[in-house]
Structure formats: structure tokens, C-alpha cells
Amino acid sequence: MKYALLLLLLSLPVFAQGNPQVDRFIQHMVETQGFDADELRRVLGKAHRRQDIIDRMNKPAEKTLNWIQYRRIFLKDKRIRQGVAFWKRNRQALQKAQKVYGVPPRYVVAIIGVETFYGRIAGKDSVLDALYTLAFHYPKRSKFFTAELEKYLILAREEKLDPAVPRGSYAGAMGLGQFMPSSFLAYAVDFDGDGKRDIWNNEADAIGSVANYFTRHGWKKGLPVTTPALSVPANAEKYVKAGLKPAFRLGELRKAGLKVDKGFADDLETALIRLVTDKGPEYWAGFRNFYVITRYNHSEMYAMAVYQLGERIHAEYEK
Question: 241-261 burial by CB neighbour count: b if 16+ within 10 A, else e?
């Protein structure tokens, strides 16, 4: 009985319990963003502290995956087939995105495929609950999530959304492309011209928003993404440790002992990428556009999964 009562109290809206952080947040939003205090109290009064969200944030990964294990998650036949279907039904929007932003369809489709399986696993948690919980009840990331809650309330006002309605991940990521609120405000676009930026249900808006994200992070039209290394320098670790952001010219790495296909120009900005497998390291030359993909998720395995999924989808689409 006591345990049930505790769970009930933990799930009550903030104003049933009182929270000075919330009062300070409301004052900040009134002074800097022009919100009405009473209206904001009403909105935040709908939010619940969710212990399950905190638990999921705290839960360590069961194991660290190597590249082969990670790759198997995303490069499955079903995800590839569904990617082809997504491409076919959104052919015009993807062509427009390539024309406007210079990003090939395969990588936009792959991002949406990796993030949400084309909308099938976009998250079922209340975004308001998630951001409220993590802003005011998760101290180690409070600053970040308080800022995201602020952005979320701004976007809800701009898009005329009831903040209690949208659903997303337990960390507050939203829509087919899983944008955090700050990314929504910065990069989401109304790609079909209907007056709304709907990344939850409108596939055209999601496509345009992902492509815009890439371009705003430095995507270079017509340049390659990555290519496998046929051999690497003896001191390969030195170049790997330089990071994902290209710090070398390909010609410089070639002189050091890197061998890749001859079709790539020496002046390409390049990083040396190492992927861990059961059979030892696998090396790739990562170009500027590979780094751009890592701005979506700061992981070489994530970017490589997007790249390889995109290539597989493209090959099947062209058949």
C-alpha cells in the first residue's frame, strides 16, 4: 500500500508537490520569451515526473557492441525493403530535397530508417513528460534538458500545438527523424508548403528537415562519403586518434601508407576511421560528408550504418 502511494505521488504533476526549479523556469520564460505565467503553469501542470524515464536514462547498455553486431541491427532485409518502399512513395519529395539541399535520397531515407524504421518506432512517450522529468528531476543533465524544454514550449507555441499531445522518445526526440526541440527550431522545414512543420506525420516535412540538417552541418554536394582502406599506415592509430573530423588531405594519408581506390582525389579532406570487429579492426577513409552524418549522432558506427544502409537501399531501388 505504501509503495503504491509512493508511485502515485511520484507521478503527480509538479504543482501538487512544489518545485522551486519550475518557478524559476517559469519566471525565465516570462522574462525572456514572453510567455504568460498562468498559462505556463497550466501547461506544466499537465506534466508528470516519470520514474521509468529516469530509469531508462540511467540503465547502462547491456553490452558494448562491435561494428559487426551493430551493423546487423540496421542492415536487415526488412529495413532495406521498407526503405525502398519509403523512397518510392516519396520520390518527388526526395528529388526536391536533392535539388534544394544537394543531399542524395539514399542518405535521407537511411537516416529515417535507422532512427525510426520509417516512423514505426518513433517513440510513445509524452515529450512534455520526458523533458519535464529530465529537466527538473535528473540533475546530471538538468541544464541540457531545461534548455530543450524551453525550446519545446517555443516550438509548440509557434506550431500551435498542445504541448501535452506530441509523442517521442524517452529523451524527448521527436518525429520520423528524431529531432530534439532545439534541432526542430533550427532545422525543421515546411517542405510541402502547407504552413506547418510536421515531422511526426508528414513524410515530406521529415525528408526536407533531415536534408536541411545535413546541409546546415556542411554537406558538400557531389562529394563522396567514405571508402574502405585497402591498406593503412604503420602508425594508423596516430591518424585514428585525430578524430572523426577530417584533419588531413587524402594525399597526405596516401603518402603515409593509406591505400584506397584511385578514383578519389588527393585534396579530399579525410579522417581515418577504425571499426572494431570480431576479426580485428576494419579501416575506412571518412570524408567531409561522413563527418556530417556523425553530427546527427556522434558515432562512427552510426554514420557507417547510415552510409551502408543507404547504399543497399539505393541498389535495391535501382533494380
Answer: eeebebebebeebbebebebe
In angstroms, rounded to a whole number, what is the distance separating the alpha carbons of residues 87 and 157?
A: 32
- In this structure, how many other beta carbons lie within 10 angstroms of the beta carbon of residue 51? 14
Confidence of residue 64 (pLDDT cuts 50, 70, 90): confident
Cα distance between residue 44 and residue 8, in whole Å: 18
Please give the pLDDT value at position 167: 97
Tell me: the pLDDT tens digits for 209-245?
999 999 999 999 999 999 999 999 999 999 999 999 9
CA distance 251 to 18: 62
Phi then psi dihedrals of residue 269, to 5 deg = -70, 130
Residue 60: DSSP 8-state? P
Report the pLDDT value the prediction gives residue 15, as an integer from 0 to 100: 45
Could you give the CA distance from residue 235 to residue 11 in angstroms, rounded to a whole number?
A: 55
Q: Where are the beta strands (DSSP E) in the chain?
A: 125-126, 167-168, 226-228, 248-249, 269-277, 280-287
How distant, in Å, are the alpha carbons of 19, 30, 46, 129, 174 from that of 35?
Answer: 19, 5, 17, 19, 23
- C-alpha 307/C-alpha 296 separation (Å) is 13
Each residue's pLDDT tens digit, 96-151: 999 999 999 999 999 999 999 999 999 999 999 999 999 999 999 999 999 999 99
Q: In what order do the strands lie in the sheet with 226-228?
A: 226-228, 280-287, 269-277, 248-249
Evaluate whether 313 touches 84 at the Cβ level (below 8 Å).
Answer: yes
Number of H helices, E strands in the chain: 17, 6
Pull the grid cell for residue 60. 547502462
DSSP per-residue string spanning 92-146: HHHHHHHHHH---HHHHHHHHHHHHTTTTTS--EEHHHHHHHHHHS-GGGHHHHH
Q: How confident is the model at residue 59 (pLDDT cuts 50, 70, 90)?
A: confident
Q: Which residues contact 116 (CB under 8 A, 6 or more apart)?
A: 122, 123, 175, 176, 177, 178
Q: Which residues are catalytic?
A: 115
